[in-house]
Structures are given as C-alpha cells and as structure tokens.
Design a protein that fits this description.
A six-stranded antiparallel β-sheet has the order 1-6-2-3-4-5. It is of the alpha+beta class and 155 residues long. It has one domain: endopeptidase domain like (from Nostoc punctiforme) (endopeptidase fold (from Nostoc punctiforme)).
C-alpha cells in the first residue's frame, strides 16, 4: 500500500509497481472490446478498463470503471517526462475526424502492458524508431498521483 506522506509525483514504490504489472498477467489473452470495463462481467477489457483493473487489484481506486476512460485518466494524471514502471503511456491518432486516445501501463523502455488489437497483453514498441507506429503516435506519459480518486464523465 501507499505510505502516508508520499509525494504525489513520486514514482510508485518498486514493489507496488511490480505487483501492479504482475497482478494483471492472468488477464493476458483476454479479448479486447471497446467499452469493456469488468473482466468478470464482460469477459473482455478495453485499454482504460485494464488500467483501472490493474490499480483496483492493488487497492487503488481510479474512479468508477463505467465512467473512467482514457480521456478522464489523461485529464486527471500528472504529465511526466521520464516514465517509471506503473506510469501511464498515452497514444493518439485520428480516424476520419474523430480523435482516438489509447492508454497502457508502462513497464520499461519499449515495453507496455495494455489492451489493444484483439487482446490484453504486452506491447513492444521502438521509442527511437520513426517508422514504429506506436512511437509515431505516442502523446506522452502521465503519472497517477498517489491518493488520486479519479472522477469524471464519459466524453
């Protein structure tokens, strides 16, 4: 658990970050489905559903899963330049005129855990390769402030 008096901008303690990332390994292979927020009820997860579930399993509430999406997480989390395990990586692109936002859990340089494509699992990207799709669409990294209780509406 988070210690009282911890800085809200400090990276997650190493043990908590490890538990956060390891705690969702049993979800690898679960189908991705837009809007899916509860692995038991929906049998699937979307990107923000996985992030909320990962933190929930460690006793950290990021708001009601039904209203917490990638846009809410982007708004509520603190921008950072040097990510640490357990931070959030955000990607953006457009389809027609509609902006899309994707969120995943940062593991290490070039390694994320997310719900994308067809299922939950690890995502590898090449941060310095301008041809890498994920690197081209990386919007930035954000940190969940310790003690955060995300509130928001679906946008």
């Amino acid at each position: 658990m988070i210690k009282a008096g911890s800085s809200p901008l400090a990276p997650l303690p190493r043990s908590l970050a490890t538990q956060l990332l390891e705690g969702v390994r049993n979800l690898y292979g679960l189908p991705w489905r837009y809007g899916a927020k509860d692995p038991m009820r929906d049998g699937a997860l979307d990107c923000s559903g996985l992030v909320v579930e990962a933190f929930r399993r460690q006793g950290i509430r990021l708001g009601a899963p039904s209203v917490t999406n990638a846009f809410v997480l982007w708004d509520q989390c603190v921008p950072i330049t040097v990510p640490a395990p357990g931070d959030l990586a955000f990607f953006t692109w457009t389809v027609g005129t509609e902006a899309r936002l994707h969120v995943a859990l940062y593991q290490a340089p070039g390694r994320l855990v997310g719900a994308q494509g067809s299922q939950v699992g690890e995502l590898w990207y090449r941060p310095s390769d301008p041809r890498d799709w994920w690197s081209q669409h990386l919007l930035g990294f954000r940190r969940v402030p310790l003690g955060l209780n995300v509130q928001g509406e679906v946008r």
